[in-house]
Design brief:
Elements lengths: L1 H32 L4 H8 L3 H28 L5 H27 L5
Pfam family, one: Sdh_cyt
Protein name: Succinate dehydrogenase
Keywords: Membrane, Transmembrane, Transmembrane helix
Length: about 110
């Protein structure tokens, strides 16, 4: 039953990430073609709850999706099982979430403190 839940959760996060990736790419193309500098981009994102929610949701989905995917790889290719497999998945997920959350905070609210 756990495997089915993880499978479904990974598919749901993929569905969530698809439009977020497209949105991120569109913003990147706009910024590059507009000739915006890093300072100008940060000037537009600082203090923005909208960008915080957009990229925060993106980071959460990626952390879950990536951790489940790497869990599957570790099980199928590495033969990892049981508590070690679960610990690996949770550790990777927490690490991805922490790194991503730190980046999102820095881009949206970090310069305001």
């Amino acid at each position: 039953m756990l495997t089915l839940r993880l499978y479904m959760l990974q598919r749901i996060t993929a569905l969530l990430m698809a439009p977020l990736v497209l949105g991120h790419l569109a913003v990147m193309i706009y910024a590059i073609q507009g000739g915006l500098s890093a300072a100008e981009i940060l000037g537009r994102t600082q203090g923005s709850v909208l960008w915080f929610l957009f990229y925060g949701t993106f980071v959460l989905a990626v952390a879950i999706h990536g951790a489940i995917g790497l869990r599957t790889i570790a099980h199928e290719w590495g033969g990892l099982r049981g508590p070690a497999l679960e610990l690996l998945m949770w550790g990777i997920g927490a690490g991805l979430l922490a790194l991503g959350a730190r980046a999102v905070w820095a881009v949206t609210f970090g310069g305001m403190l």
